[in-house]
Amino acid sequence: MESALLLEKTILVVAVFAITLFIAMYSTLVERKVAGFMQARFGPDRAGPFGILQPLCDGGKFFFKEEIIPAGAHKFLFIAGPAVAMFTACITSAVIPWGQELVIGDRVVSLQVTDINVGVLYIFGVVALGVYGIMIGGWASNNKYSLMGAVRAASQSISYEIGLGLSLIALLMVTGTLSLKEIVAQQEGFVNWNIWVQPLGFLIFMVCAFAECNRVPFDLPECETELIGGYNVEYSSMKLAFYMFAEYINMFVSSALMAALYFGGYNFPFMNELGLSQNWITILGVIAFFIKILAFIFFFMWIRWTLPRFRYDQLMRLGWKILIPLAVANIVLTGIVTIIKDTYF
User: What is the H or E stretch that residue 306 is in?
Assistant: First the structure.
């Protein structure tokens, strides 16, 4: 029994890891295609039909490029920085429920790597660790622009993690649980999606997710016009690729979290009225979940090619003077509504 469970979890971990890398890899192509479409030009279209082999060419370029470590860099930490960023990005998805159970023979297989009753706290812990990869890499590079980018990343992460956490407190007041599996299960039925009861919380969470992923208009740690390339300016070869991949993986995981917390996760309208077997419902649920995720990824890209970058003072003002007070007000409002509902209804 234990060996079968271990095999199931191993297969699921490998599948989630492979899908995550595949989506991160092809997000680089889709981003350039979206940019080309929005700027009335062609994106990459030379490598394979419609450029679909471009990510493989980019990967080959990163593998075979010369690896350069600056003479004044701290070698161990210089190598550890991108490794930490990539590792923390990959393990965040361990608590995300990708679908309902599959029935295979006499076994019920859960499509979640692990279901812990404090899954939301686990995600916060891992996200908080992710900034260390940037900080270590920026400091170990022995470059003033890298260090400045790393300091920006750290202060930005601290500022927006507060708003991110406060936005979720109101959601936890509504759901009454920290388990992602239970939160998604409670959203069965289109009218039960959390976006209808926490629209302000979702808006705050989404803005903070952009900042946590260092995406435009919050890409101040990489700001090319000021810092050349930011914390990764001294990196080349696969170390630079790890930082880039970590950003796209974080974007994928953030999209999955927004879909799971506020848009029903694998739930979709009329799923129980179709009269299908459990396995078919599960498969359709997984497809619906990934459609929601891809829609959010497209939104990330659309924003990048639509809005200009904030100034650093604007970024800090938005985090501390707007988002945090809004999140606190949302908590108070949610508490008042909950008390009224429990008292009179």
Answer: none
Is residue 72 a contact partner of residue 228, using CB atoms and an 8 Å limit? no
Q: Extract the tokens encoding 211.
A: 């900042």
User: Which helix or strand (DSSP H or E) is residue 102 part of?
Assistant: strand 102-104
CA neighbor of 256 nearest in space, from 110, 123, 75 = 123
Cis omega (within 30 of 0) on the bond before 55? no
pLDDT in tens, 222-254: 776 666 777 888 888 888 888 888 889 999 999
Determine if the pTM surpasses 0.90: yes
Could you give the CA distance from residue 272 to residue 282 in angstroms, rounded to a whole number?
11
Q: Residues 6 or more apart from 37 whose CB is under 8 A from it?
A: 43
Rg (alpha carbons) of the chain, rounded to whole number:
21
Residues 282, 108: Cα–Cα separation, whole Å: 12
101 closest CA partner among 1, 184, 18 = 184
Rounded to whole angstroms, how far apart are CA atoms 243 and 214? 11
HSE-up (13 A, CA, CB side) for residue 288: 20
Pair 170, 104: CB distance under 8 Å:
no
The torsion angle over the Cα atoms of residues 247, 248, 249 and 255, rounded to 10 degrees, is: 110
